[in-house]
Amino acid sequence: MKVARFTHHARPRWGLIEGDKAIALDSCWPSMTQGLAQGWPALQEAARQPGADALPLDHLEWLAPAEAHSKILCVGLNYGRHVQETGRDQAAFPSLFLRHLDSFVGHQSSIVKPACSGQFDFEGELVVVIGREGRHIDREEALEYVAGYTCMGENSVRDFQKHTAQVTAGKNFDQSGSLGPWITAASAIPDPSLLRLSTRLNGNVMQDAALSELIFPIPDLIAYISTFCVLRPGDLIATGTPEGIGLRRTPPLFMKAGDILEIDIPGVGLLRTPVIDEPAN
Q1: Which of 32, 77, 96, 135 lies deepest, with the highest CB count within 10 Å?
Q2: Where in the chain are all domains bearing CATH 3.90.850.10?
Q3: What is the pLDDT of residues 120-161, one digit of tens each?
Q4: How many CA atoms within 13 Å lie on the side-chain side of 39?
């Protein structure tokens, strides 16, 4: 099972993806977050109701599967070999930063290389989507709070990331990252540690790693984050990027206009975005 956000005739909508169609559910729950909070059986039941809009996927434009009120929490340095390639020491606790929704586009939309930088780097990640509200969640119960999973091109503008000790600037350029294409139900992925992530740039594999290599596995991340904030349906946790980033290659390799970035997590989805230059003012 999968849900997605999309536009149809310029109208933002969301729904259940079934084969080559999207069954729109916004007439039942205005937001995808409200739908996720009902649980997957309720979404399936609503999709079976007479009169539900069945929209051909080739008539839609994909939106990032997140909403304005969603928290987007990102984990840095969460693969051992990525920590090694950066020359840093492994931390005792997860390294976290926030991103805002305007910094993401959906599947098949263009990510934007900023005009002010030549260091636009690729970063593929698995994202956890929360389905139940919780605080102080035990790690043993953490996966019960997961609605599903999606793909992220987290991407970074490296020189701006290094302007200060805080990475916010380099992580939040408008339309620099991507999310999608959809959220795949957690029931389809009983053990996310068995997943494998690949990042391809123009068809060439740049990153390839198993989710079992995470320093802080998904249950640990949920337990840690929920100690300081309430997790709510629709919140996102990006689990970190593996080794192979452009900054640490010899010579460094950064994205440019005309490139095609793909984040491929079999069982979750394939997120594909072309790269364009920032339009002139």
Answers
A1: 32
A2: 72-277
A3: 999 999 999 999 999 999 999 999 999 999 999 999 999 999
A4: 5
Buried b or exposed e, range 14-30, using 16+ CB within 10 angstroms: bbbbeeebbbbbbebbe
- Contact (Cβ atoms closer than 8 angstroms) between residue 128 and residue 112: no
Can you give the length of the chain in residues? 281
Tens of pLDDT, residues 76-125? 989 988 888 887 778 899 999 999 999 999 999 999 999 999 999 999 99
Report the C-alpha gap between 103 and 178 in whole angstroms. Answer: 8
- For 224-266, the pLDDT digits (tens) are 999 999 999 999 999 999 999 999 999 999 999 999 999 999 9
- Please report the DSSP string for 135-161 in residue order: SS--GGGGGGGEEEEEEEE--EEHHHH
Looking at domain 72-277, does it have CATH number 3.90.850.10? Answer: yes
